[in-house]
Every structure is written in structure tokens, then in C-alpha cells.
Write a structure and sequence with these properties.
The protein has helices spanning 37-41, 47-51, 74-77, 88-146, 148-173. The chain is mostly helical and 183 residues long. The two termini are 59 Å apart.
Length: 183
């Protein structure tokens, strides 16, 4: 479950529907939802840190929704038809184990790969930025300065020849109208 969503506890009843159930008995809780947003916002930070662009977004980690295709749930992967069903306990435990293993294996892989990939990505983008700022952009500007006469010539050709031609063609064809009728 992502941070920022509802912060209530989830209760899972691991009994079969045929089992008897006492109302006095407390259901088993397999996991607890993350703390509420108010708890995270109470962390005292300086004004500089709150304004900073480099502060990681803790609640909105995919603001542009580039990974919407990865929202996979148990029902997206495993489905039993009405004619063939496993026991209720098997279904509930399968669901719980699927969710727990999906979350924890992702966390373990993230711990192993996130920091090195962040460092590599930071180095790569800084090198690309430096190359673009100090090599590519000045070369493009030099090319624009050297070909300014070509841009002026192109604007003259467009204004003298092409604009009147297409304006005339537009006025000639503007009088046509098409009416569709059902037979």
C-alpha cells in the first residue's frame, strides 16, 4: 500500500465460510497500514528544506503517472472460474502471500539497486547536461549566427511566393461547400 492512502487497519478473516465464528474473538491482523499524512507532516524542517526542489516527494512518487501499467493486483494475475474453486483459506492465504511477497521482494530489490542506479543516473545526466550546455548549445548558436542570412532569405521567399499562392488557393477553394444527403 502506498503512503498517503487511507491509514486504517486491515482485518483478514482466515476462516472458511463454513467455520463457526465467535463475535468475542478478535480477527487476526496480518499487516497494518502506514501512518497517516498528519504524522509525516509533523516532522519539523526548516523553511529552506520545504522550498527546496531536491526534497523527495514522499507521498506523490509518480506525479506524472508514468508507471500506471505496474499497478498489478492479485485479481489481475490469479483468477478462478466459478466452476473450479479452491478452499476459502487457500484463496485468502494466496492473496495475502502474493501481496506480502510482491511488496517485500520489491523493497529488497529496491534497496539493492536504487542507490547504485541513482548514482549512475545522476552522473549520466550531469555529464549529458554539461555536454549539452558547453558543447551542443554553443555549436547550434554558432550555426544559427552563420546561417542568419539563410533564415532571412527563407522568410523572404515564403512572404513573396508561398504566402500569396496559398492565400489565393484558400480563397478559391473557400467557396466550395459539400452537403451530404441520405438517399
Amino acid at each position: 500500500m502506498m503512503k498517503g492512502e487511507d491509514s486504517e487497519e486491515f482485518e483478514i478473516n482466515l476462516r472458511d465460510s463454513s467455520d463457526s465464528f465467535d463475535n468475542d474473538e478478535e480477527p487476526q491482523r496480518l499487516w497494518k497500514a502506514p501512518p497517516a499524512l498528519e504524522d509525516e507532516e509533523n516532522i519539523h524542517t526548516s523553511t529552506l528544506v520545504e522550498i527546496s526542489d531536491t526534497k523527495p516527494l514522499l507521498n506523490v512518487r509518480d506525479p506524472r503517472a508514468i508507471n500506471d501499467c505496474l499497478k498489478v493486483t492479485f485479481e489481475d494475475v490469479i483468477a478462478e472460474p466459478v466452476t473450479v474453486r479452491s478452499g476459502d483459506r487457500v484463496w485468502i492465504w494466496s492473496n495475502a502471500l502474493f501481496e506480502v511477497s510482491r511488496v517485500w521482494i520489491y523493497r529488497i530489490i529496491t534497496v539493492l539497486l536504487a542507490i547504485p542506479m541513482s548514482i549512475i543516473s545522476g552522473i549520466l545526466f550531469s555529464v549529458l547536461s554539461c555536454f549539452h550546455i558547453w558543447m551542443v548549445a554553443p555549436c547550434i548558436q554558432c550555426m544559427f549566427i552563420g546561417t542568419r542570412w539563410l533564415q532571412s532569405l527563407w522568410n523572404i521567399v515564403m512572404d513573396i511566393i508561398m504566402r500569396p499562392l496559398f492565400t489565393s488557393a484558400g480563397r478559391c477553394c473557400g467557396g466550395f461547400s459539400i452537403h451530404l444527403a441520405k438517399e
